[in-house]
Amino acid sequence: MEIWSGITEAFWLLVTLDADLVEITLRSLYVTLTALVIASAIALPLGALLAVRRFRARRITIAVLNALMGLPPVVVGLIVYVMLSRSGPFGVLGLLFTPTAMIIAQVIIIVPLIASIAHQALRELWSDYHDLLISMNTTQTQRVQALLWDGRRALLTASLAGFGRAIGEVGAIMVVGGNIDHHTRVLTTAIALETGKGEFSLALGLGFVLIAMAIAVNFAIHVIGRTERGGRW
């Protein structure tokens, strides 16, 4: 009965747009979307560059990139914490336990994922465009730009995958954000806190929002994948 009561209260919080629930959700979206934009700006050109350019350490770079996808997020959080702490090299900036620190951690976590997916997609595209772009005597920058534009559907899928990874992150966010009420509390950390307190209604409400976001992202990836196979944008 307690669980059913919690579910009922959770739906009521969603229907009435509870202030705490809305605040936490909006903060989560702000942190994750900001991290996604920054990470995509880094990872997508990197993936295209790895597809186009041949250099001595290319295979090692790709292997490292793939390995970093499995890096435990809590370790990323620890590294960022050390770098931003008072005794760290960037402690003077006072970024620890702020949304900015959370954004930095999420960027580090999702850049390898987005870059690896982008590289896999653009490598196949480059094999189709290689002869044409070489014959046109294009520069490396022009080749990267051409791949990024023509591979935009696959790259959007890569970014959505990064969003799905970031929005559900809790370990690194807890370490560098501190889960401070009205400041750094986001969906995942709030769910962990409310569950520990036994406040299942708000935890379930936040959980429903998180599940809805995950479903929406996966649905978007599915739709984009079908659109790409159908040759439509």
From TrEMBL:
This is Tungstate uptake system permease protein TupB. Keywords: Membrane, Transmembrane, Transmembrane helix. GO terms for cellular component: plasma membrane. It comes from Aliiroseovarius pelagivivens. Residues 25-221 form the ABC transmembrane type-1 domain. The keyword Nucleotide-binding does not apply. It is a multi-pass membrane protein. The keyword Iron-sulfur does not apply.
